[in-house]
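idk why but the lab printer keeps eating my pages so im just putting this in chat instead. protein + nicotinamide-adenine-dinucleotide:
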Amino acid sequence: MALLEDQIAVITGAGSGIGRETATTFADHGAAVVVADIDVEGGEATVETITDAGGEATFVETDVSDPDDAKAMIETAVDEYGGLDILYNNAAIEGPVAKLEEYDNDAFEQVIDVNLKGVWYGMKYGIEAMLADGGGSIISASSIGGEVAVPQYSGYGAAKAAVSHLTKYAALEYAEDGIRANAVAPGIVRTEMIERTIEEHPEMEEQFQNTEPMPGLADPEEIANAVVFLASDLSSRVTGTTLPVEGGYLAQ
Ligand SMILES: NC(=O)c1ccc[n+]([C@@H]2O[C@H](COP(=O)([O-])OP(=O)(O)OC[C@H]3O[C@@H](n4cnc5c(N)ncnc54)[C@H](O)[C@@H]3O)[C@@H](O)[C@H]2O)c1
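predcted complex ->
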C-alpha cells in the first residue's frame, strides 16, 4: 500500500544510513523526495537509487547548521515540486566519545550546531512552507541518548534531548494549523555512524551488540518504517511525541 502518494518530502542527511533508507522508502510509497546532505557524492547516489527505481528525487547540497542552506533546501521542495508535506530532520554527527572534562569545546559547539540548531532551522523554514501549503508532518531524529544518559556522549545526548523537547514546542504551536511534529529515538542502528565509532573504539562493538534487549543491532529499514508511520496519515492523531525504536532499551 502506497502511504505517501503525491506527498513532497525533504530529508536531511539522506546521503547515508537511516536518511538514505528513509528516502528510498518514502519514494517507494509514492513521495517526491528532496535529498539534502552536506555530502554531495552520498546525496547524489541516493537520488540515483530512487530515480533508477522510477521514483522522483532531487539533491540539494546543504549544511543544516547554516540557516541560508536550510532555507534553500525547503525552497527547493517548493520550487521543484510545488510545496512541502513532510520534513525529516535526520542529519546529525556523533561527536567525540569522551567524558565531560575531556570533551573538546569546538567539537561540542559543532555537535550543537548540526544536531540541534540544524533541526531548529529546518523546523523554522519547513513550518513556514507548510503553513502556506495546508499543513504537514515533521519528524526529527532523536536517540536513546536523548531519553536517558549514555556515558561519554554528553554533547550528542544534550542535543538529542533538546530535539525531543523542541518537537513538543512545534507540536503545540502548530496543532491548530494541520502541522504535526514528532521525533524518533533509535537505539543502535547498523550505519556508517556506528561503523566509524567501532573503527575508532573497537572495544565498543560488543557493547553495541548487547545494548538493546532484542538481539543485535537494528537495520536502517526498521527506523525508516517508523518514520513512514509518523509521516503518513496512519499517525493522524499523533503529535508532540518521541517514538522509541530501540528493541526495548528504554523499557528497562
Ligand atoms: N546509527 C545509530 O545507531 C543511531 C542511533 C540513534 C540515533 N541516530 C540518529 O539517526 C540519524 C541518522 O544517523 P545515521 O546513523 O544514518 O548516520 P550517518 O552518519 O550514516 O548519516 C548521517 C548523514 O548526515 C549527513 N550530515 C552530517 N552533517 C551534516 C550537515 N551539517 N548538514 C547536512 N547533512 C549532514 C552526513 O553526510 C550523512 O549523510 C542521526 O540523527 C543520528 O543521530 C542514529
